[in-house]
TrEMBL record:
The keyword Methyltransferase applies. S-adenosyl-L-methionine binds at G80, W99, D167. This is Cap-specific mRNA (nucleoside-2'-O-)-methyltransferase 2. Pfam families: FtsJ. Coiled coil: none annotated. GO terms for biological process: 7-methylguanosine mRNA capping; methylation. It catalyses: a 5'-end (N(7)-methyl 5'-triphosphoguanosine)-(2'-O-methyl-ribonucleoside)-(ribonucleotide) in mRNA + S-adenosyl-L-methionine = a 5'-end (N(7)-methyl 5'-triphosphoguanosine)-(2'-O-methyl-ribonucleoside)-(2'-O-methyl-ribonucleotide) in mRNA + S-adenosyl-L-homocysteine + H(+). It comes from Caerostris extrusa.
């Protein structure tokens, strides 16, 4: 998997294109190219300076400060494509980072849910069930007013997440053009 991803990405950078100019084409005069004054946003320049100053504070730190636990939370995630993509990225580009993740989706094993609203593809959910939280009611519906509080209690004092993703939809394979309407 690792070599497949890396080789695919490397191939994008190996692409070469050749364009032949028209016979009577000439390079434009520098008077035409540079005729307007330099475009500067003072506010943006101030932000850039502050950012670079902050980044410079890390110059005397070794590489060890970067190695830590990366924590992510994925809401409405089934079937789990974003988790899989993030896993691939972390394995390929940050293999020394320890990854802890939690995810939520409508519970595909909860029998009272409408089969039209649940994504039943559980190829990621089943082998990683300990990472999934479906709420105290075991439904997994984040629209339940108690769900945020229950999730916070479940997570407890484990600290903040570095990344939170949210798809926020339901299975719309029957009518993809009406996804937004059917989700609400």
């Amino acid at each position: 998997m690792e070599t497949f991803c890396k080789s695919d990405v490397r191939n994008f950078f190996k692409q070469k294109f050749t364009f032949e100019p028209e016979k009577d084409w000439k390079l434009p005069s520098d008077n035409l190219i540079f005729k307007y004054p330099l475009w500067v946003f003072p506010t943006l320049q101030e932000s850039k300076t502050r950012l670079n100053t902050t980044k410079s504070l890390l110059d005397d730190k070794g590489e060890e400060w970067r190695i830590h636990t990366f924590k992510s939370l994925h809401l409405c995630e089934a079937p789990g494509a974003f988790i899989s993509a993030l896993n691939c990225y972390l394995c390929n580009y940050h293999p020394r980072i320890h990854w802890e993740w939690k995810a939520n989706t409508l519970n595909p094993y909860y029998e009272d849910l409408n089969i039209k609203t649940v994504i039943s593809d559980d190829r990621l959910i089943f082998p990683t069930l300990e990472h999934w939280y479906f709420g105290k009611d075991n439904i997994g519906d984040i629209r339940n007013p108690n769900y945020p509080k229950n999730l916070q209690e479940h997570i407890g004092s484990k600290g903040a997440f570095h990344l939170v993703t949210a798809d926020g939809s339901i299975d719309c394979t029957d009518d993809p053009s009406e996804q937004e309407k059917d989700s609400f």
